[in-house]
Amino acid sequence: MRTGVFRNKDSFIRDFKKRLKQTYLKDINDSTIRERYNILGTLVREEISKDWIKTNKILEKNDQRKVYYFSMEFLMGRLITNNLMNMGIRRVVEEAFNDLGFDLNETEHYESDPGLGNGGLGRLAACYLDSLASLGLPGYGNCIRYRYGLFRQRIKQGYQEERPDNWLSDGYVWEVRKEEEAVDIPFFGNIEWHDGFVYKPSEYIRAVPYDVPIVGDSNNVVNALRLWNAEPSKRYPEGKSAFEYESELQKISGILYPDDTTYEGKQLRLKQQYFFSAAGVKSIVNKHLKKYGTLDNLADYVVFHINDTHPTLIIPELMRILLDEQHMEWDKAWDITQKVTAYTNHTILAEALEKWPIDIMKPLLPRIYQLIEEINRRFCLELLEKVGYQNSDLINELAIIGNGVVRMAHLCIVSSYSVNGVAKLHTDILKNIEMKKFYDIYPEKFINVTNGITHRRWLLHTNTELTELLEKYIGSGFKKHPFELEKLLDFVDEKELKEAFLKVKKIKKEQLAQRIYKEQKIKIDTDSIFDIQVKRLHEYKRQLMNALHIMYVYHNLKTNPDFKANYVPHTFIFGAKAAAGYYFAKKVIKLINTIAKKVNNDSETNEYLKVIFVENYNVSYAEMIMPAADISEQISTASKEASGTGNMKFMMNGALTLGTLDGANVEIDELVGQDNIFIFGMNADEVTNLYKNGGYNPKEIYNNDEEIRMLLEQLVNGFFEDEKQDEFSDIFNNLVYNDNYFVLKDYHSYKEAHRLANEAYKNKNEWAKKALVNIAKSGIFASDRSINEYAENIWHIKPIK
Ligand code: 26Q
């Protein structure tokens, strides 16, 4: 039971009105939504702070091991609903708002959705924070307080435009500035020798932490996400104008880099990486020293988790502190460093692996670079002893530094005690192919932890209708123990359940349809199949294949009466941002919008086929989209998608996967069985072998396959009459001459999967059963399971006592 403001409806109303008056000098009836939101947020934060202080007090007393999750991205989404729910006070507030004549939902939606991440990796970090707190585990996020998050997307004449994401314009109620814990981060300068190396930086940047509370579900535990802001240091750099210094430092926490397929080393990005890694390490080390007076026992109490290679500089930074500030011997420092760092790999795309040019790193971080050189030298020597001079090729291949660059993944593997992939297939590919030679040296380091999603946000909060229905059949145990969703299997043949499920689905489809109508003025049929692909735009994710198939459907609706008679109306929905500099991805967005315009306005077909490209797909939009899907498109070229997490969100909300055997789809397939999923295309082995044998010749398919030729020609023959003739010629050429991701090769099997799905949907009862099996089997993808695995197998942390 809560005391104070949230004790009951009446006390809340009284305090809410009073605070509103004190703050804005207004009666509640004259208040704006912004004012109501701010007061609500403030009251909730104050309530959270009680638990926050308590949690911290306990931890100060306890000798407990904690994990610090370093990630350049945390894609949190709105926190208000999550906080109200997890605090167990949403009901009280909702009733109060109803009494006052205001809509709580609308107020919640006023909160800005901070885009401090690109996609999967950032959202995973956010789900993991929710699970850590909800499982009562001591775990903290560490990131940058980007002034601007990922750009907001606008679609104009079918093209993507990028606008700045000014998420802080109105303040952020959840953050608490911790001035006292600010630290100075050194850059540039040189190294001198005075009985040992002494680093003399020429510039410092002040890092000021802002803590955002992470509220556990009904357990009074509050953890934190620490966001670092770059500010001027009191140690002002000599010989630099104030203007230059200020504008340089502002950039560091200025903007989130968009995830590009091809990795490009930019000095600013490296500055960001060092800035938040060093700030995090320093504040943690300070705290530890304050408590224990030594770093000798650091590894007993601290784990630094490295979320992809972006925070790799934790490793040399910790070495720097242990050697230069604590004056430890190398071996001891190295031993500690190895025991506190664990690394997760999220990608197998070779071109996405981080490699920093020495020319960029060395002048910016001279001491850090020097330490990496020493780590590399020792690693190469060790390797030499193991494999001998005759294997110098292997040493060159695995070295941390080579060809003028620092290979960050190599540094992580060599230095961390744990290396994990994010789905079974992905980890197998790391072990057997991508990182095989490291696996041969350090087999004990490699482990799999399949990704997960927080079922609280992605089921309980965003699909209350489905949650209520499930509760009726299997009780409420699944809310705390998502594995209990499996109890649903006992009921999947019950007619009432299936009908009730279809009703819920329809409600969620209507809610989405309303939003789409409001924003885009396009009416969609909520009895049609909602076939949805939402994720970042990347060639390997093959939105292009989806688009080509829609062109095929359209063609057949126009020309083939049998096809039309057999076709269940479909609404194809896309949501995707393309990195601003990713030319090809932007072309695909244009193509999808061009197709949409043509087919949506064709009265001969638009009862059967609609295409929607939602603008500015983000976490909040996803919350409406996931519950509304019938079909979840997970169609990446096998072996390329490390895991995927959207696939799990769709599944938990009762959509059927139409996809390749890639990433976590493989595990979904194993769980639900072939009757409840539509799998198509080459598998990972086939793809790997095809690459190995020099790829294939798409031109041959183009020449010999009439249907594919017809579709591809529509890209360049004026079929899209409103577009320039060469608008899509780069897409055409790419498919015919490169087709690196095997779109043409998998096309027919993709089409066949769609045909089967279309047939299956005709029996709605059977469809409902399939969807329910998916829900029942989805518990394993709750991030609570993933986090328990991390806690037990990698971090060795225990719940807060
Ligand atoms: C790197 C250098 C410069 C600029 C940007 C980047 C950068 C930024 C973000 C590189 C990669 C990312 C994000 C990667 C990512 O989201 N990977 C996804 O991670 C998910 C969580 O594990 C997986 O489910 C997805 O399969 C994987 O693609």
Distance between the termini: 20 Å
CATH architecture term of the largest domain: 3-Layer(aba) Sandwich
**Principal-axes shape call:** globular
Profile the largest sheet.
10 strands, mixed
Please identify which CATH superfamily of the largest domain we are dealing with. Answer: Glycogen Phosphorylase B
Helix content: 40-55%
Q: Enumerate the spans where pLDDT stays under 50 for 5 or more consecutive residues.
A: none
Number of strands: 23
Bin the strand percentage: 5-15%
- CA radius of gyration is 27 Å
CATH class of the largest domain: Alpha Beta
Bound ligands, each once:
ligand 26Q
| Oligomeric organization of the protein chains | single chain
Question: What can you tell me about this protein's structure?
Answer:
50% of the residues lie in helices and 14% in strands. The chain is α/β, with parallel strands linked by helices. It has 3 domains: 1-61 and 78-112, no CATH class; 66-75 and 113-451, Rossmann fold; 455-781, Rossmann fold. The strands form 5 sheets. Strands 1, 2, 5, 6, 9, 10, 11, 12, 16 and 17 form a 10-stranded mixed beta sheet that branches. Strands 20-19-18-21-22-23 form a 6-stranded parallel beta sheet, sandwiched between helices. Helix 27 (665-672) links the parallel strand 22 (656-659) and strand 23 (678-679). The structure holds ligand 26Q. The site of ligand 26Q has 21 residues, from helix 6.
What keywords describe this structure?
801 residues, alpha/beta, Rossmann fold, ten-stranded mixed sheet, six-stranded parallel sheet, 34 helices, binds ligand 26Q
